[in-house]
Specification:
The protein has 167 residues and is an alpha+beta fold. Helix content is 28%, strand content 26%.
Length: 167
């Protein structure tokens, strides 16, 4: 008889964003689908309306950060999130362009991963107010494993001048 092995669960922070169509419904659909198929949502930030990043010539985004508990390995998680984006109708046509839904892995526990197409922690999260503001709400004491600073410190050091307004 084989011993029963339990799956190892890990806390993961995800960033959700949308600036096309019914933005709030898009966030809700992503949240619900993630909860049903990827991992249990443990907590979530408020939703924030934010200026677009990179390409400023587009509609404002709604952004939110959620913390999930999942047993999926990092690459499996990325694949599952990309599948949700595709099923919701996301088309990847231009970098920093408009999108129906965007789901980014911000942190995967305390792991540092630098692999083809997968960088965790997200390599630009510390530069983006639209990520740091909702993350600050959820986990101000969370330490960035590369930068060795807590989220509250990263937020205070962030030079991104974009408006980030809690709804």
């Amino acid at each position: 008889m084989q011993p029963v092995t339990s799956k190892k669960y890990i806390n993961v922070y995800l960033g959700l964003g949308s600036n096309l169509g019914d933005r709030m419904a898009n966030l809700r659909t992503a949240y619900s689908t993630i909860h049903k198929t990827v991992g249990k949502v443990i907590k979530h930030s408020h939703v924030y309306e934010t200026e677009p990043w990179g390409n400023k010539e587009q509609e404002p985004f709604l952004n939110q950060v959620i913390m999930i508990n999942t047993y999926l390995a990092p690459r499996e998680l990325l694949d599952a999130l990309n599948k949700i984006e595709r099923e919701m109708g996301r088309k990847r046509t231009e970098k920093w362009g408009p999108r129906l839904i965007d789901i980014d892995i911000l942190f995967y526990g305390k792991r540092i991963i630098r692999d083809k197409g997968l960088e965790i922690p997200h390599p630009e999260l510390h530069l983006r107010a639209f990520v740091l503001a909702p993350l600050l709400e959820l986990a101000p004491d969370l330490e960035h494993p590369v930068l060795k600073k807590q989220i509250d410190e990263l937020y205070m050091d962030c030079t991104d001048p974009s408006d980030v307004v809690m709804l």
